[in-house]
Input
Amino acid sequence: MTHPTIIQGGMGAGVSGWRLARSVALEGQLGVVSGTAIASIVVRVLQSGDPEGHIARAVTAFPLRAMAERVYAKYYKAGGVAEGEPFKRQTMHTLKPSQELMELTVFASFAEVYLAKEGHDGLVGMNLLEKIVLPNLPTIYGALLADVDYIIMGAGIPLEIPGSIDKLSQHEACQLRVHVTGAEKGEEHFIHFDPKSVNPDAVAPLKRPKFLAIISSNVLALALLKRANGYIDGFVVEAPTAGGHNAPPRGKLELNDRGEPIYGEKDEVDLPKLAELGRPFWLAGSHATPEKVRLAIEHGAAGIQAGTIFALCEESGFTPEIRSRIIRALLDNKLDVFTDPLASPTGFPFKVALLQGTLSHGPSYEARPRCCDLGFLRTAYKKADGKVDYRCPSEPVDQYLKKGGEESATEGRKCLCNSLVANIGLPQHQTSGYTEQPLITIGDDVLNMKHLFQNEEKRIHSADVIHLLLSEVPGAALAHA
Output
């Protein structure tokens, strides 16, 4: 079985959007779209007037045309929302989501994958976070309807995902376990999804995509192979220098002088032992150079996953202004990357670029009125009356405390949901008059990429990146057959 050498990282909330994934797939490598908050993104694109009619084109391709037309009709706004006008929000995901939300999520996921795969036969995958459990099943099903080639998942231990993919490909009902804080011993909670609820006439099986688990240790790889409810096709081995969420250090948490988590020998993966497991693996986190691609293959890897270098490409979902600011700061030696142990409501370390005008900047963070109106990173908890509710340490502090949360958990927390969507030019304009600000996540090795922007235009394209990364790999295919 052959695999791509380069996996383009699945950077959250639209940075690895369909345009970037498609451009990578056209070069014979694995383009990856992010499934994170995909329904919110499609909702806002529709309310922006569906520029160039891309979502409308996905409607015509969707196998459940009436369902897609309902979604389009509800959210599409000709000419787009007025300047400063708030976007209409979809309802938040819960243990019992509405039929309307399920239809929206399935269609939005389909649209993203369909547009990435449109007009070619290259490989396209979807990246998801295990921690964002509530929308994952309908998101995966929508991707399957679009013939997705790979599902890639990290930020947790995705034991139940391979088996769920098996069932979804057969249009069978499935469930995922949901952790509920305060639940009694032996008490279990699940999120359920039945494809027949949105696709009642489905008969023909869908293609089962390959499943890659993102890991940070040999222990996790072995646990997944032993305990997962389905087949693991391979692993992405992510080092703590990668952008986005990082796995916490193993053992006692210690911070350096800057307040960042300290990683040590326990956090290094034994590649020879990993190779003995007999599954292909890709190395991620500061591997985006020709030499490191070659060395990864020499050490038994199928290749590498690279995110940051693709995030800086013209095809990425970053707005041109944000991408230009990052590159300008890099070239002026003013770019700093900080592994923030507090920023993410998940409790995982989260890597941010320290730039003024973003939530990494103290005054910008303090100026933001706290709210939780997207809710993807909320966690479930059991109330005194036995009912399940949801809370987020980034919501207003008084609300979090009323829900039984501890005040210490709110310190330094940032609203990733709103800020990451702002990164791609779709910020919410709150009724208070506040416009959501970005928060840039990027890997440590961005500081070694100045040489990529020495051209007059100060820009790079994904095809150039792929040709560069494969330049020391003998016989590497640089274009898809």
Notes: The chain has a mean pLDDT of 93. The first helix runs from residue 18 to 25.
